[in-house]
Amino acid sequence: MKITWEFTTGDKIIAKDLYAVLLLRNKVFIVEQACHYQDIDGLDLNKDSIHVRGLYEGQCIAYSRILNCGSADTPSVIGRVIIDSSFRGQQLGVKLIKNTVDYLKRNKNCHSVQLSAQSHLINFYERFGFSVASKEYLEDGIPHTDMTLVL
Description:
Elements: E1 4-9, H1 15-32, E2 50-56, E3 59-67, E4 76-83, H2 92-106, E5 112-118, H3 122-126, E6 131-132, E7 137-139, E8 142-150
Parallel strand pairs: 4-5
Antiparallel strand pairs: 1-2, 2-3, 3-4, 5-8, 6-8, 7-8
Pfam families: Acetyltransf_10
Domain N-acetyltransferase: 8-151
GO molecular function, one term: glucosamine 6-phosphate N-acetyltransferase activity
């Protein structure tokens, strides 16, 4: 399966691409995981937000969002990490996180990154060098743990 990876800043993402991202986030977080929260948080269009999109035949099937990219004073944050349910089990999560972290490593201002991992995925993120940085807590009824990575 040929996946195309695109990295777009929030101030440059076009409406149809943002719509596809929001559709996938709604499908996974709101419907599938029953997390009833305000997904559209006002951060998607920031110039320091990066939308990492994995496209298959033009369809967004993998996604993560980087916040604070380019800010030397503040750690970058990876969030909204998702794979379309129809494409799971094909190592796309590995490719998504690898592409996301590699993007951050290429940015000279990014020195560290944080994420809020669903706790059952701690071992997955540790494979990329992330370390546990908090005790487990509930977010939308799902156990999460903060993790950090020094780039």
